[in-house]
Design brief:
Strand order of the largest sheet: 4-3-2-1-5-6-7
Helix content: 25-40%
Radius of gyration: 16 Å
Strand content: 15-25%
Oligomer: single chain
CATH architecture: 3-Layer(aba) Sandwich
Low-confidence stretches: none
Number of strands: 7
Largest sheet: 7 strands, mixed
Number of helices: 7
Distance between the termini: 19 Å
């Protein structure tokens, strides 16, 4: 929190990249006295290695953000991408109905936005979220994560006005290996975090 407090932002909004980002963003929002805002993004995973993101789709975005290097190295065809995107769009819509029901999200236009995730691997989800917030007019735009490799930070440098990382480290075994508890957050836990009851 000290790294974010030091930025001395005026009326920041804390955006949680759902689902995993909710557990990290909730205490940040509380510490900063800021609104916690859900941001829905779905990773587009390689069919035989779903944790490896070849892209991501943000709620409301017409097109996904694609990692062309991974698409090419995995030999993914346009039909593969379209099929996976359709599946993830359906899940994005389900989560939107569930997580955003009865919730008004503040307009980020002209306000500092802190996008929070549980870490960076390929950075596809964060890139999609940052682009969605940039398009919505958030400024300045800060990406905050507990852990990330330097190459992922460098790859996202042009997407955010500032990147705040608690620990820069290689993550050869994925983000989950950096946590003592990295369970997949169930819907009920996400909703409780967003309501501040968890």
């Amino acid at each position: 929190m000290p790294l974010l407090r030091a930025l001395d932002l005026d009326r920041p909004l804390v955006f949680a990249l759902l689902r995993g980002g909710a557990a990290v963003a909730a205490p940040i929002a509380a510490a900063l006295g800021a609104s916690l805002v859900p941001l829905l993004v779905r990773k587009l995973g390689v069919p035989w290695h779903p944790e490896l993101a070849f892209g991501a789709l943000a709620d409301g975005a017409a097109e996904p953000v694609l990692n062309r290097d991974i698409v090419a190295s995995c030999g993914l065809m346009a039909t593969d991408i379209a099929r996976i995107q359709a599946t993830e769009t359906a899940e994005l819509e389900r989560r939107s109905r569930l997580y955003l029901a009865g919730r008004t999200r503040p307009d980020p236009r002209g306000r500092p936005a802190i996008l929070v995730d549980d870490g960076l691997a390929t950075g596809a989800s964060a890139r999609a979220g940052l682009r969605a917030l940039r398009a919505a007019g958030a400024a300045p735009l800060i990406l905050a994560v507990p852990v990330a490799p330097q190459e992922a930070i460098d790859a996202l440098a042009s997407e955010a006005d500032r990147i705040v990382v608690a620990e820069v480290a290689d993550i050869p075994f994925g983000i989950g290996a950096c946590y003592a508890d990295f369970h997949q957050l169930p819907d009920g836990e996400v909703i409780a975090l967003l309501k501040g009851t968890c």
